[in-house]
Every structure is written in structure tokens, then in C-alpha cells.
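Progress against Task 2.4 (sequence-to-structure conversion) is shown through the following example record, which the project officer requested during the mid-term review.
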Amino acid sequence: MDERAYVGVIKVYYPIKGYGFITRASGKDVFFYRTSTEKEECLIEGSTVTFQIEMTEKGPKAINVVRVA
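C-alpha cells generated for the chain above:
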């Protein structure tokens, strides 16, 4: 797991499917699961979030997603 904190914006979130993507200032969009956050209410498209990145077999995944604005 990458211990650094990243900042991004929720690009899209599919509540029925329970996943979405976060756009970073630099680099590719990052996939996340609803379970990567304490509160699902924070998963609003366009919201600024902080997160960490965990590498998986399928590529990077955002974890510890927290809404900041």
C-alpha cells in the first residue's frame, strides 16, 4: 500500500453497483469500492476527496477515501 495521501475528485459513482472512479490531478483515474470509505454519503460526484492507493492484480485501487469538500 502507498502510504501517501492523494487528492482527487469523484468523477463518477454507481451506487447500485457500489463502485466508481476518482480523477487525480496527474495520472490515470483510480477505481474505488463503496467499502473504501467510512460513509457512503460522501460519495457524491464532483466532491473533492483524499485517498491512498493500493495496488491490486487489476491495477491501482483507492482506499481510505475521505470527502474534504
